[in-house]
Amino acid sequence: MTFTDLHVHSEFSLQDGMIHIADKKDPKHVKADIVLNAERRNTGAVAITDHGNMYGQAVAAQVCKTFGLKHIPGCEFYMATDSRFDKSYAKRGDAYMHINSWCKNKEGYANMCRLQRASFVEGFYYVPRIDKDLLQRYHDGIMWSDACVGGTICTHILKGDIDKAYAEFMWYLNLLGDDFYIEWHNHGIEAEDRCNTIKEEWANAHGVPIIACTDAHFYKKEDADAHKTLLCIQYGNWFDNPTFGGFQGDGYWLMDEDELIERYPIEYLNNTQLVVNRCEGDIIKFGDTMPPKFQVPQWFIDQVNMSRTTEVVIDKPDDMPIDDGQILMEPAPPEPVAEVAPPEPPVTKPKFVMKTIGGK
Fold first, then answer.
1. Distance CA 215, CA 231 (A)
2. Rounded (10°) angle between helices 190-206 and 162-176
3. I want to staple 56 with a disulfide (CB 3.0 to 4.6 A). Which of 12, 28, 131, 151 is the partner?
4. CB contact at 8 A, 213 and 265
């Protein structure tokens, strides 16, 4: 068996993740959870897919470089139910679904950063959200999956709308092609079993690889109570509340080999290497200065060129369209420095001495 944990939530999944990426005191010499697990797997790869953010990716890249591992940047995005601009939902859970992603190369990382920015700037409603419009524009260089039971396909299956679920499956397959994967989860939940059965049939019929994912949120089984405490903080609950059990089912830790084989088909465990092998690695670079490429609008170029021969105040007309362009011109000559007169000598004021009567 060759397995790499692809669906992993670190401490940067701020409300429910507990897996440590780096040691807080000595990250260059002490191995934290994510490194120890990668060495145990013996695949030499680390993937982080935090909820809606990429906060931990730079840290993970540094740690992987230190300990000689391949870093696979990823993110479990929140996908808006409809448009990212629709912010009319009364319930948080109705406003989004999940979709998982991993970078293949630097282009994919750049696109993932663009998606990340848009999710906060344009789509934030309860959580940062992307939508299909953004996905169509920025999916290149990224591998995608349908994620967990809260994902883009399972959500419709669990609502009983199988036709809608299949339409979603085909939409992603047609758009993403070989970059689309189906996740197989097993946490002892009946809902997962239903989704697995239906998705497996569709994936096999269309040649879509199925990958085993543990959806790990903490390092080892013994951390389950600590993780439940973290969830109590998120939901405002009490640990001893009999109606609050944390996540449904179990198995949300980085399992050992025997636990994996007991829960997941060997083929789907091995399929995780398809994602690992397609990531070129060493995607996030450190130490290189990479200024952004700024496209100057054509109207600005025209007016600057005109200002070389005439006195023109550069001002964009309201009705002038903005076209991308590139400005190429010699730097303007320095303005002549005005001669400064030497300072005048200071005026010396006479000193007056006051004397009292009697010479005292």
1. 15
2. 50
3. 12
4. no
